[in-house]
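User: Teach me something about this protein's shape.
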Amino acid sequence: MSSYYLIIPASGVGTRMHSEKNNLDEQTKTPKQYLKLDNGLTILDQTLTTLLNIDKIKGCIIAIAKEDRLFAKSAFNSHPKLLTTVIGGKERMHSVFNALKALTTFAKDDDWVLVHDSARPCVKVLEIINLMEQLKHHVTGGLLATKVVDTIKQADNNIVNTTIDRSNLWQAQTPQMYRFGVLLKALNTTIKNGTNITDEASAIEYLGLESILVKSSKSNIKITNPEDLALANFYLTQYQKK
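Assistant: First, the predicted structure itself:
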């Protein structure tokens, strides 16, 4: 039976989050994954609370910045499912690759790896379980995503060039879940070839392999800008009321 492992790339500084004035004066130099939510948890700790409470997830590796001194203060620094931390790389793909290399000690080629953004604290457990269920027999894997509903314009210097057909467009989310051996090969290949990718699905595409899209909800937002923090707090409050 295949095991499930979690990788969280959490070595970013959140440039866009701090690129404008906001009401986080005391936290303006804090990496966004360590900003506090209304429930008192950091964004990263809320994300880990959700995912590590899933019984199927056997272990976790977190990629943090070399200068990170904040994760040591997290309760998850001593969590029984934390296998190790690794130093993040220049880009997300390098951080995930570093974590995958550390995972070789624990995972088999046909085990599953879920890669989840540290700044997506509103992901729903049921949607992750559905992702696992939908993909459990697939040879490669797939990801959570939502259908694009807005009209999409392609522009040059804010001047519209064309309207893009949205009927087959999806907005990628995380977790993105792939077989360990396949994902390790895909990221190793893209990095060796100097190909820049922004998510794991792109690396899988680069190898010409299939990814399955599993429908998710719009509430699985990635906190990127200051207004996203308020929206995340709203969603988390709504979850608690249910």
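Now, about its shape. The two ends are 34 Å apart (CA to CA). The beta strands are 4-10, 57-64, 82-87, 112-115, 141-147, 152-156, 159-164, 170-179, 212-215. If you'd like, I can walk through any region in more detail.
User: That's plenty for now, thanks!
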